Amino acid sequence: MSMKVVNCGRPLADKGMFESAGFELIEQQVGALTPKNEYIDLLREADGALIGTLPLTDVDVLEACEKIKVVSRAGVGVDSIDLPAATRLGVLACNTPGVNTTEVADHAMAQLLALTRMIREFDSAVKAGKWSTATQEVRSLASGLKRIAGSTVGIAGFGNIGRAFATRVRGFGPFRVIAYDPYIPQTVADLYGVELVDLDELLTTSDFVTVHTPSTDETRHLFSTDAFSRMKETAILVNCARGPIVDPEALYSALTSGEIAAAALDVTEEEPINAEDPLLSLDNLIITPHVAAGSPVTAVEGARRQAENVLMVLTGHPPHGLANPEVIKTIAVLRAGDSGRWTDVPDFSTALEL
Predict the structure, then answer these.
(1) What is the per-residue pLDDT across 65-77, written as a single tens digit (0 to 9) for each?
(2) 271 in catalytic set
(3) What predicted TM-score, i.e. pTM, was given to this entire model?
(4) Is 317 a catalytic residue?
(5) To 10 degrees, the CA torsion angle through 52, 54, 55, 56?
(6) 138 vs 119, 120, 122, 285, 302, CA distance in Å?
(7) The pairing of beta strand 195-196 with beta strand 208-211
(8) Which member of 163, 290, 304, 305 is catalytic?
């Protein structure tokens, strides 16, 4: 029986990989406004799906789609998938780790430099003609310039992107690079010249903080009123990870009250951010529209690996990335009895490291 794959994201450049395997491929874009029942209807007969950030692939979707075996996201984040439900039901939640590490680390570094070197302010002043007509006003802006050399840089989340950021920022000569990540041993951080600290030390001693943690229940509003109250008044926060990690109301308060000096976001708790959101009125905040991972390379390579995840799983090979490795045990139990959705699918579990 032919397998069916649904692509809910960008049209694939190489559809041949599925055609060669004898799979039926259906491409239909969905988004934030797609009703859940329509999303379920689209995936109901699918064996695998290429999905995006929205709509959410939650427990209702996963339980209703009894044939689905694998859902694949481009990039690292899988916060749109109900991982406990997927694991319980025997559905692989795949991602493409490493595909956009360079871009996100570059973007975080660029946002930090834009704030410390006041790129926006000087550009606006010069384009307004003030370099020649209000020279003193332009020069006075320079009092807000900051240097990274000699500072303490804090990294919240020391996975691939946090490590890539560490290698970049080291070139600017900070006195100390520290990181908070309870799941990483110091021996790994040592390879990057980074000292692991607890969250309190990261908040209280860092001049600049960049966020690279996943979005989980544990990290939701990690940066909240309490966190901002412990940070330096001169501190700068950069978040190129996920919006819910930073409490937007607490951030607005911190930026307007002077608890911290400035911030830069590539992600917001609500996306797209509401046009009336008070954060948009702040001059000491940079916001870009969730584009940190973007480049021609990631667009092509990310889509290819996302598709390969589905193809490899359904043909008995391990995927590029698996966000819920515990699911392998669930599938083993299924295979030992009534295989259910995994009937007639080759076993790849022995090739995976759990």
Answers:
(1) 999 999 999 888 8
(2) yes
(3) 0.89
(4) no
(5) 80
(6) 12, 12, 7, 20, 43
(7) unpaired
(8) 290
